[in-house]
Specification:
Layout: E1 5-12, H1 19-31, E2 37-44, H2 51-61, E3 66-71, H3 77-87, E4 92-95, H4 107-113, E5 120-125, H5 140-154, E6 165-172, H6 173-181, H7 189-196, E7 200-205, H8 218-232, H9 235-247, H10 249-265, H11 271-305, E8 312-316, H12 319-332
Parallel strand pairs: 1-2, 1-4, 2-3, 5-7
Antiparallel strand pairs: 3-8, 4-6, 5-6
Helix pairs in contact: 5-8, 9-11
Length: 333
């Protein structure tokens, strides 16, 4: 143990400058892993560059170890991971991004860690020079935002997500099946994995900075974090409740000031000015609450329609498990 078959799943979106190196490094890492066979499943998430063509060339070179799953358009990272998991048939399944921020060379260590009886093994990011803000691989405001996001998600009361972990993990086959049984349309896999429970281990590594392609903007990362929070947490609703309660401190303080002013100085404050200011504060709080509630209602709207999470344009490559089955069938016929 582990031995068995290893499936590796990675989404690809506009990675033509890195995808060939990524494939070669993953295959090299899989070869030295303690498994009998392995397969790499790449999900082309509607790339607009030559990523799909480059993957096809690699599939021709490694037909039994590499499979391409191609979406009809861009459906997003989480949908791509889900599609890859639905095709993975290994006893152990590793998921990671294809931008080489997460080094594929860690795969053997993740598989080896399964020997200790864990059901899920996370690759945990650690900062290079110490401190709290360097583990994400980002710098500046992005690094601070990533730190705050992981801090919030790790403080959830039910099924907290371990600090400084992302999509890089190794799971047993039954864990993958549990994930595929979740029916919601808007999925956030780190949250779903954390909700499973079971035995969890970690392997530390240093995440690299993204190279050879534009980094995601602060706004894009912020919206991803907001989607994650509202998909798998009611924290924003609790925040609005706290903000609404805090807003009452202002009229309370103003009321005390009015009483002191009237009793001690005999002055009467402008009622119109005070009422207008209080109304403005409550109006802002109400608008904020309505905005976040609308976001949740929008998600409920998507869930109720029960639409498919993605559409697959084509698949190329059988993968090692299906290839073995075909060989066995032809050999026994």
């Amino acid at each position: 143990m582990p031995r068995g078959v290893l499936s590796i799943v990675a989404p690809v979106y506009n990675e033509e400058t890195l995808v060939e190196e990524f494939i070669e490094r993953v295959l090299a890492a899989a070869r030295v892993s303690d498994v009998s066979e392995f397969e790499l499943i790449l999900v082309n998430d509607g790339s607009r560059d030559r990523s799909g063509d480059l993957i096809l060339e690699k599939v021709a070179e490694h037909p039994n170890a590499l499979r391409l799953v191609e979406f009809s358009r861009n459906f997003g990272q989480q949908a791509a991971f889900h599609a890859g998991l639905s095709f993975a048939q290994g006893d152990f399944v590793v998921t990671l991004d294809s931008d080489l921020q997460d080094p594929p060379e860690l795969i053997p260590k993740l598989v080896e860690k399964m020997r200790d009886g864990f059901d899920i093994v996370y690759a945990k990011r650690v900062p290079v020079g110490g401190g709290n803000f360097g583990a994400s691989g980002h710098t500046g405001l992005k690094s601070l935002g990533a730190y705050l996001f992981h801090l919030l998600m790790s403080r959830r009361r039910h099924a907290p997500i371990p600090r400084d972990v992302g999509e890089y993990r190794c799971m047993r086959r039954d864990m993958v099946q549990h994930l595929l049984n979740f029916s919601e349309y808007m999925i956030f896999l780190p949250g779903l994995v954390a909700s499973l429970g079971f035995a969890v281990g970690t392997v530390d590594y240093v995440r690299q900075r993204r190279a050879n392609r534009p980094q995601a903007s602060v706004w894009t990362l912020a919206m991803r974090a907001f989607d994650a929070l509202t998909t798998f947490s009611v924290l924003p609703l609790n925040f609005i409740l706290g903000a609404t309660l805090a807003a009452w401190l202002f009229p309370f303080a103003v009321s005390l000031w009015m009483i002191v002013d009237v009793v001690a100085l005999g002055k009467r404050p402008s009622t119109i000015a005070l009422a207008s200011l209080a109304a403005l504060i409550m109006w802002c709080v109400t608008l904020t609450a309505i905005g976040i509630m609308a976001h949740y209602l929008g998600r409920m709207f998507l869930e109720i329609k029960s639409r498919p999470r993605y559409f697959i344009k084509r698949t190329v490559g059988a993968g090692v498990v299906e290839a073995a089955r075909k060989w066995t069938t032809s050999g026994t016929s």
